Amino acid sequence: MTRLIAIDPALRNTGYAVVERLGSGAGLTCLEYGVIRNPATRLQSACLTQIHSEVADVVARLRPGECAIEAVIYVQSYRTAITLGAARGAALVAVAAAGLPVVEYPPRRVKQAVVGRGGADKQQVAFMVRSLLSLRETPPPDAADALAIAITHFQSNRPNHPRAADVRNL
């Protein structure tokens, strides 16, 4: 059995999902997904505390054995990059404190793995995630992105399917 927490970090809406695979040939089961929401009126420091606290809570309750997270992406604004990096850092500290190994996946690779093309939009990702995991409802976009990261991770860990060079352990 492999249990994974996947995270799509952002300051205002961090998506997370806990997904499990019971054996190497078994399908995937979604145990929980959601979005850590921080209102625009909340100070950045309070947002980071909230992200850390909620990720730590999910890890403590569901006890995943590893973490997959969206890799840093190129952004045109340095302020956006710093804010995204801070949100990633808050989530990473929570999983690192629990001793989980972390693997990151670039957004284009995640979209390619789930939809079949790296330029897919959020609605396409959410639709495919719902279908692939046999969910009863379409998850919110940020949670769908986290679920897509989990699917990508499990596809990358299949026997005879080596990880791509752009994926590394932190």
Structural commentary:
By secondary structure, the protein is α/β, with parallel strands linked by helices. It has a single domain, classed as 2-Layer Sandwich (Nucleotidyltransferase, domain 5). Helices cover 44% and strands 21% of the residues. A 5-stranded mixed β-sheet has the order 3-2-1-4-5, with helices on both faces. A hairpin with a 4-residue loop joins strand 1 and strand 2. Helix 3 packs across helix 5. It is globular and about 45 Å long. The C terminus is likely disordered.
Poorly predicted spans: 158-170
Q: How many structural units, i.e. domains?
A: 1
Number of strands: 5
Determine the strand fraction and express it as a percent band.
Answer: 15-25%
CATH class: Alpha Beta
Mean pLDDT: 89
Radius of gyration: 15 Å
Shape: globular
Spatial ordering of strands, largest sheet: 3-2-1-4-5
